[in-house]
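Practice problem: predict the structure.
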Amino acid sequence: MGIHVIKMPDIGEGIAEVELVLWRVQPGDIVTEDQVLADVMTDKATLEIPSPVDGKVLALGGTAGQMMAVGAELIRIEVAGKGNTDVNDTGLGAAPAQLIPAVPVPVPEHAPALRSTTPAQPTSPVLPSGEKPIASPALRRRAWELGVALQNVQGSGAGGRIMQQDLDAYVAHGAIPHDGIDGPSAYQERHDEEAVPIIGLRRKIAQKMQEAMRRIPHFTYVEEVDMTELEALRTRLNNQWGTQRIHLTILPFLIRAMVLAVRAFPQINARFDDDAGIVTRHGAVHIGIATQTDAGLVVPVLRHAEARGLWSSATEILRLADAARSGKAVREELSGSTVTVTSLGVLGGIASTPVINHPEVAIVGINRMVLRPMIRSGIVVPRQMMNLSSSFDHRVVDGMHAAEFIQALRGYLECPAILFIE
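Answer:
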């Protein structure tokens, strides 16, 4: 038998270390060639590390959430034959203490630490039925005020006398039936805690949000938009082409409106290198689409939106969303955006304060669309209304220009025919 050591592969593009996100195997597991051993992450792109050999897992080189250098020992597998390292060699760039040896019952890497401090509660009275507990009048009054039946309290005094510390211990254990009924209660106190490690994509999101809020002075502008005409057009297009083309949502129309609006406001479609003090305005419109996944929020990029029609944008948005939610999006699909769109869909609320996707300078947020009574030509009529909640980097985008940009978007969305007139 031999030992085959797998090292952290070189991801490329000058990356020196990556985060070990999840182990797919544990010490003692039998693995086969091409079986996925672990997931690693860099710049929001999750990569799978497959096994090049058949064998048995001997030790793991790190724990979930740990940053590992490229070339560091990732895993040791016992194989038939010679392997690629000496059986007695336990180093290979990692001290033996860093390896996680085989254990009889391995704990899953993703399992949260759960600590319960609530002891078991009495299920039946401590004293026989009809027997009066021994306690002082003051303690009886306090127990009455707390709603505690003293028959359920174990006394530690002479002859089973209930002392103040006995009542305190009972109360501290969360055994008070607050509804006044003896026995378990829906209102009893809880003292359990759950420690959830922030690793993987969730850590990347936290770092990104913290960096954006630390560096960017946000300016948020909210405007309501009458979406009635656009919704009528969207419904008609879907009814006419629904069986032949992809279903159209609001997003392709908004993206088209943004493509047209940034022509007049190029400072919106930009990235700000605040370390160098340079704002780069882009001719290409690469729109980030904030997408919620089971692992957290990621931002795949719709490239060259200026060259796409409605259905082309809709098709690419769907493909990018599927790739992001399945964890298959590659690095190129998750970077390089020049302006971002975010939406909470039906949970969009009335308004929001979206966080800018640093180093961009603007983000446009979609809120929930609702049917509301509005006055048109002196008559109250039902209209489909929606708010746009957008944030801007106030260092490089003036408030007036931000408002003018949103008003331009509003004009395109409220009269959708001009979206298609050059």
